[in-house]
Amino acid sequence: xxxxxxxxxxxxxxxxxxxxxxxxxxxxxxxxxxxxxxxxxxxxxxxxxxxxxxxxxxxxxxxxxxxxxxxxxxxxxxxxxxxxxxxxxxxxxxxxxxxxxxxxxxxxxxxxxxxxxxxxxxxxxxxxxxxxxxxxxxxxxxxxxxxxxxxxxxxxxxxxxxxxxxxxxxxxxxxxxxxxxxxxxxxxxxxxxxxxxxxxxxxxxxxxxxxxxxxxxxxxxxxxxxxxxxxxxxxxxxxxxxxxxxxxxxxxxxxxxxxxxxxxxxxxxxxxxxxxxxxxxxxxxxxxxxxxxxxxxxxxxxxxxxxxxxxxxxxxxxxxxxxxxxxxxxxxxxxxxxxxxxxxxxxxxxxxxxxxxxxxxxxxxxxxxxxxxxxxxxxxxxxxxxxxxx
Length: 390
Hints:
The chain is of the alpha+beta class. The protein contains 11 helices and 10 strands. The two termini are 38 Å apart.
């Protein structure tokens, strides 16, 4: 997809690749084992302005036109080749920033986006609850108006960057009797009275990314921190996911690419029956399928990202779902095959493909499970069929 990238985007890719190769790869196993947040890598990313690539120039970013979706995908892909967990410090901040970019007032954008662009403050997005995962309409966190503030009560779970981020875009019910139509979105700052962090999850994969609960106990949030209008929260969330899912797809793409690279190196060096296993047709066929699936994934992601950046974002929900489904299924298939091709070594932590296989699984789950994504795609096809039948 080289022809789609501008000179600036190639420079962004090269910077992200440098950070991945020189800073992330040497320490990825350590962070995976410890399950600690990579603040040292965050600072390295900030030094080379990677956090600016999704933020408009007006707010100290690098995006002159469009939404910066292609930029987001480039950085996420390159970092995820080395470590998908560490990549989430960047990608999770982009997710938390999208509601502000899409629905924030000028005052809100001027206040919150520049420190994100500088990498001084990370962001997170709070939607999921224990009883509201795929069924986002079952939210229970409430926000009651009290003069110039809203009083929030409830708990969010599985929040990427939870506890580490300073800025949280969070959905809560301002009119619980209306269900999803009564949800609103707020910007909540770390340190807000009544806002704390609960359980830090111990995960199978992406262990270098912190995943925590957000706890609201009569948390007082200024009315000025409402994003959009009351009752618009569900729309904010769905619109955010439409734009962010190519980022999940790019993460999955990076994982798959990293696994293929490791497999090619191993297959070239590994000898059985007197020759490199790379010379065996059965191995070549598996590698050929892996490479083909990766290239198809790349085309789908960057074609969609380019379309979004050109302003064509109408009715893209099903396309965003397709990118996420295809990329994450590819990541799971490619990493599974990588472990198989490395044999016993692939199952050992000495080689990174077992980590990549663990990391790949979450891309089929978060920001909407792949079953939910297929529902989104199917619903669009039903609408298309009805139009054709007229």
